[in-house]
Amino acid sequence: MQASQGRNVGLGLALASAFSFGGSGVAAKPLIEAGLDPLHVVWLRVTGAALVMLPVAWRHRSLLVRRPALLAGFGLLAVAGVQACYFAAISRIPVGVALLVEYLAPALVLGWVRFVQRRPVTRAAAIGVVLAVGGLASVVEIWSGLSFDVLGLVLALGAACCQVGYFVLSDQGGDTDDAPDPIGVIAYGLLIGSVLLTLVARPWGMDWSVLAGSADMNGSDVPAALLLGWIVLIATVIAYVTGVISVRKLSPQVAGVVACLEAVIATVLAWVLLGEHLSAPQIAGGAVVLVGAFIAQSSAPKEASGPVAGGDGHPLPVQEASVQQAPVEEASVQEASVQEAPAPQSELSAGRTAP
């Protein structure tokens, strides 16, 4: 019961993160059309969020000594890498194509879990990923932009790989007693990402006067400062916080598929707020993405209700239990690929009870 509630909370947080991330483009586009460079908008987004999270970073300053590699990786991949690669990609290839390539990340996460971590995944989870990616092809109408630029595609794939880093790094240490606080990791990731993006965006050449005026949003004048506040507080701070916590409560592969909803949410918000109407194939694709996300979430391995029992019937420590079960899991990989039954429980969730 408690594990089920934890998964439900994780799913809710993942949806909140997808909604928050999805709203960033709707708020950023009017600022870009008002005269700001896309990279300058990204720099304002990350730097503003880093300043908001500065007190949190100070509170968790011990992370600099305990987990320097994790913080550096999160700032480089999950913050600066995704943003820089994506915006560089859309300068060379259509936005829809770049978005689809970037959101191959859930499939790449599944590959990471299966082939790098050597942990079995359910057939239903794989089907959910295929449906989600296929639905995204319809949402972004990939057939409308088929003249490919090799460098642009490489940059979009780089954004996808960086997004894999976001999900994998967000899950690091989540099942240990010495797990780093995810909020602290986010705070330092934003600080490090801000420094890296400063070198790329060169904000000293930005037209700061745009922020003092207003921007047009489908015929309505909206204060530029209000749009920036939405991007910083909702689309970055809340989006990253809820996203990282959801990975801890679900799993990298499940949270990755649910995050595909960001593209659907962004398209719907653009339809409502910017007047960018959806076509019938886009609506159908959005429905397919929802189905794929639901299948992946519902096929998540069930968490243990208590300590794992050893051969003598007594509870084993989590680490010992995972070692003892390893041969059984490895031996059943072939059987799990044939049968419809769920794959053996991964050590990601073994012995961990949701709060």
Task: Summarize the SSE layout with pairings.
Layout: H1 2-33, H2 38-52, H3 54-59, H4 63-66, H5 68-90, H6 95-102, H7 105-116, H8 123-139, H9 150-170, H10 182-201, E1 214-217, E2 220-223, H11 224-249, H12 252-258, H13 261-273, H14 280-298, H15 318-331, H16 333-338
Antiparallel strand pairs: 1-2
Helix pairs in contact: 1-11, 1-13, 2-5, 2-10, 2-11, 5-9, 5-10, 6-9, 7-9, 7-12, 8-14, 9-12, 11-12, 12-14
**Secondary-structure element string:** HHHHHHHHHHEEHHHHHH
> How would you write the strand order of the largest sheet?
1-2
Q: Can you tell me the overall shape?
A: globular
Question: How large is the count of helical segments?
Answer: 16
Helix residue percentage: 55-70%
Mean pLDDT metric:
74
Instruction: Kindly name the structural category.
Output: mainly alpha
The end-to-end distance, rounded to whole angstroms, is: 12 Å
Low-confidence stretches: 300-355
The count of β-strands is: 2
Q: Give the strand content.
A: under 5%
- Give the radius of gyration: 21 Å
Largest sheet: 2 strands, antiparallel
